[in-house]
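Lab notebook: predicted structure, single chain.

Context: the supervisor wants predicted structures on file for every construct in the current expression panel, including those that have not yet been purified. This is the next one on the list. No modifications to the sequence; it matches the entry in the shared construct table.
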Amino acid sequence: LKADIEDVSNPQIKIAPLVLIVFVENAFKHAKDALTKEIEIGISLKITGNSICFATVNSYRVDKSGEVMADDESGLGLQNTIKRLGLVYGDDYRLKQYTEEDRYHVELLLKIKE
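Prediction complete. Output recorded below exactly as produced.
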């Protein structure tokens, strides 16, 4: 586990409660299914300009065809979180999810509300 969490001392910087937890949960949930015994999970949170930058990366399992293995129950928490992000932040957020080799990446950029 690698965590790079910036100390935020400005009380004016706020985020919707529990909006990041689904990404952290998914990183742990899907990393445990990796084919190797050693799994990797990275979590990053930084303030850049007028944005909150959050990212996770985790190892994941790929089947022989190169497809990511997912269980049938996956996706509800993520779908609900994306809906919530849209309701709370409107166009003031960007979410990028992608795979690279045997790693799954999530990058979330939230505009700081004033």
